[in-house]
Amino acid sequence: MARIAVTGATGFVGGTVAAVLADKGHDVTCLVRSDPGEDFPWAWELTDTGSVADLERVLDGADAVAHLAILNDFALMYADRRAGWDAYVGMTDRVIDAANVVGAQVALISSDWVFDGVGHLYAEDFPPNPVNYYGVLKVASELAVLNRADRGFVARVGGVQGLHQTKKHGPRTQDVGFGFFVLSLVDSLSRGDRYTVWEDPHINNVATPIISAEIGALLGRGIDRGVDGILHFAGGTAVTRRELAMATCEVFDLDPGMVDFGPVPDEARLPAPVPFDTSMDGAETMSRLGTVAHSVEAQLRALREELETGRPAPLS
Ligand SMILES: NC(=O)c1ccc[n+]([C@@H]2O[C@H](COP(=O)([O-])OP(=O)(O)OC[C@H]3O[C@@H](n4cnc5c(N)ncnc54)[C@H](OP(=O)(O)O)[C@@H]3O)[C@@H](O)[C@H]2O)c1
Q1: How confident is the model at residue 170 (pLDDT cuts 50, 70, 90)?
Q2: What domains lie within the chain, and their CATH numbers?
Q3: Relative to the CA of 14, which ligand 1 atom is closest?
Q4: Measured in angstroms, how far is the CA atom of residue 254 from the centroid of ligand 1?
Q5: N or C: which end of the chain has fewer CB within 10 A?
Q6: Ligand 1: which atom is nearest the Cα of residue 33?
Q7: Residue 263 CA to its chain's centroid (Å)
Q8: Ligand 1: residues within 6 Å at CB?
Q9: Are strands 259-262 and 210-211 parallel, antiparallel or unpaired?
C-alpha cells in the first residue's frame, strides 16, 4: 500500500478521497493550511503550499501526492487574476517541484470544465478549449503536470456527487454546475418541499456524474498502477439535469411530481460563461485502471448507501 499525501482534504472532494484511500489501506496524510480540529479523521501536517521547501518536508517519504486544493471562489479569481493563477498553477508547480525532489507521483484532480461544452462525451485526447478563467487555470495546471512531473497523471472529474466528510452541514444547494445537485434535491423532497431544476442554455446542463467515493477509488488505482497522461474519471451515463433529477427520484424513492423545471435565478449566475455539455467518455481510462464506468443508477445507489451509513461507498 502506498503512502499518499492529499491536498484539499478539508474540502468536498478531497475529504472523501482521503477517506476512501485510507479505507483501502493506504497510509494517508492530509496537507492542511490550518488546524482542522480534533474531529478531523485522518493524519495531517500543517503545510505552507506557498513554499517548495515546506512541501518537500511534508512529502518526504511519500509515494504520491493527490493534489486537489484550489481557490474555489469564482468572483475572487476574476477580481485578482494573479492570485487565481498562483492558487492553481503556482501551487501545482510547487507541488510538482517538491514531488520531483522526493520521487513522488503527482495525481492532479482536474475538471470537465476544461471543455467548451459544445461537444458530447469528450475523449481523453480531445483538445480542451475552456470558456472561463477557472477552465484556463485547470488546463494550465494539467499541462504543468503533464510536462514537468517526473511521474504523475491528470484525472478530470465532473458532475461530482457526494457528502462533505468534515462539514456535515455544509452548503447543499443547486448551482450552475452539477456539484451537490443530487443531495440538494434529495434534501428538499425528503422535507416535503418542491424543487425547481434549473434549465437554461447558459448553465452546465449535461454531464457524466460520478460520486466522490468512486473518484477516491479510481485515484488509488491510478497511483497503484503508476499511470501517466490524462484520465477521465467519468460516470457511465451522460445525463441532463432533468434526467439526473428523475433518476434520483427513482433511486431515492422520491415523488417526481414534486420536481419543477424553471429558469436560473439571476443571483446564481456566474460572472463568466459556463460550458453546456461537459460529458466525458471514460472508457479508455477505465480499461487502463482495470474497471468500468458505472451507470448513473449505480452511482446513485452508492450515494444513497453513503447517505444512510455515513460511509463512502466506492464502486471500484
Ligand atoms: N466539486 C466539484 O463538483 C468539482 C468538479 C470538478 C472538479 N473539481 C475539482 O476537485 C478538486 C476539489 O474541489 P472541491 O469542490 O472539493 O473544492 P473545495 O471543497 O472548495 O475544497 C478546496 C480545498 O482546497 C484547500 N485550499 C485552498 N487553498 C489552499 C491553499 N492555498 N493551500 C492549501 N490548501 C488550500 C481548501 O482548504 P481550506 O479548508 O483550508 O479552505 C480545501 O480543502 C478541485 O481540484 C476541483 O477543481 C471539483
Answers
A1: low
A2: 3-309 (3.40.50.720)
A3: 16
A4: 31
A5: N
A6: 33
A7: 26
A8: 7-8, 10-14, 33-34, 49, 68-72, 87, 91, 109, 111, 157-158, 160, 177, 179
A9: unpaired
